């Protein structure tokens, strides 16, 4: 299990990383071991464990164990879980985490971008769905720019003056490239939208509208496991496009 997204920018020492890896690998019994047991198993002190919890943003050892379990716990392989997985391809799952008012508000902001640029940013698989949104909005007549991790930061920085809306996509919600840009956009008075996984994260805190999309495998950075996050993100984009067209028709901006 890769923990880079979880630990980036936390300033962990090698010992603290090793302890975190131990806890994640032994979540079934670390609570019964307790702080002293975990420290003993890793040849370190109890203060190291407590310092790790604080750096990771948890209230303490127990809170850290429970929160980590929620991140790495694998879905059960029951028939009901399998049915729920298939049903999650619908829009109901999206509206479990978001309101339709958010969808309408996002569409309204897109309508308002008459001359300004809509800047879309995402890396990896998030960049793939970001590029889809970019082409979708272009075909809807909007002036857009899309950038990914391999592009120069100058593309973003040189667009700030004419940027009216920023949309950042990050499954983990902890991608530093996305977080830095959405934070900069917000600081420059640009309307910001974040599309991330359903858990609390640092990208979402800088968004005027934060869309949370169910992520069944929160630490699966390589997107190896079956997951509805990316198809659901594209479904969200189609919901926004639907609402955009409805708003434009009500303003007689689009032909019937």
Features:
12 helices; 256 residues; alpha/beta; 5-stranded parallel sheet; single chain
Description:
This protein is α/β, with parallel strands linked by helices and 256 residues long. The protein is built from 12 helices and 5 strands. A 5-stranded parallel beta sheet has the order 2-1-3-4-5, sandwiched between helices. The longest helix has 22 residues, at 229-250. The N and C termini lie far apart (51 Å).
Strand order of the largest sheet: 2-1-3-4-5
- In oligomeric terms, what are we looking at? single chain
Low-confidence stretches: none
The share of residues in extended strands comes to 5-15%
Q: Gyration radius, to the nearest Å?
A: 21 Å
User: Could you describe the largest sheet, including whether it forms a barrel?
Assistant: 5 strands, parallel
| Number of E-state strands | 5
User: Helical stretch count?
Assistant: 12
Percentage of residues in helical conformation: 40-55%
Mean pLDDT: 88
The geometry reads as: elongated
- In angstroms, what separates the terminal alpha carbons? 51 Å
Quick structural gist:
The chain is an alpha/beta fold and 256 residues long. 52% of the residues lie in helices and 12% in strands.
List the helices and strands and how they pair.
Layout: H1 4-7, H2 14-25, H3 30-41, H4 46-55, H5 61-72, H6 79-87, H7 92-97, H8 100-112, E1 117-122, H9 124-139, E2 144-147, H10 153-157, E3 163-170, H11 176-187, E4 191-197, E5 209-213, H12 229-250
Parallel strand pairs: 1-2, 1-3, 3-4, 4-5
Helix pairs in contact: 2-4, 3-4, 8-12, 9-12
């Amino acid at each position: 299990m890769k923990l880079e997204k979880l630990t980036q920018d936390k300033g962990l020492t090698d010992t603290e990383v090793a302890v975190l890896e131990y806890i994640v690998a032994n979540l079934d019994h670390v609570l019964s071991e307790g702080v002293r047991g975990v420290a003993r198993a890793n040849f370190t002190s109890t203060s190291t464990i407590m310092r790790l919890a604080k750096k990771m943003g948890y209230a303490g050892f127990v809170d850290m164990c429970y929160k980590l379990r929620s991140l790495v716990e694998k879905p059960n392989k029951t028939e009901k879980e399998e049915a729920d997985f298939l049903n999650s391809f619908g829009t109901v799952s999206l509206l479990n985490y978001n309101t339709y008012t958010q969808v309408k508000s996002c569409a309204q902001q897109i309508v308002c971008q008459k001359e300004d640029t809509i800047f879309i940013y995402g890396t990896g698989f998030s960049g793939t769905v970001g590029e889809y949104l970019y082409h979708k909005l272009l075909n809807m007549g909007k002036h857009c720019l899309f950038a990914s991790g391999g592009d120069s930061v100058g593309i973003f920085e040189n667009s700030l003056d004419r940027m009216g809306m920023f949309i950042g996509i990050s499954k983990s919600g902890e991608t530093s490239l996305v977080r830095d840009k959405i934070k900069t956009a917000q600081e420059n008075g640009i309307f910001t939208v974040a599309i991330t996984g359903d858990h609390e994260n640092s990208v979402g805190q800088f968004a005027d509208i934060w869309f949370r999309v169910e992520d069944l495998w929160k630490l699966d950075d390589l997107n190896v496991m079956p997951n509805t996050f990316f198809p659901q993100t594209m479904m969200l984009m189609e919901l926004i496009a639907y609402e955009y067209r409805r708003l434009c028709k009500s303003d007689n901006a689009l032909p019937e």
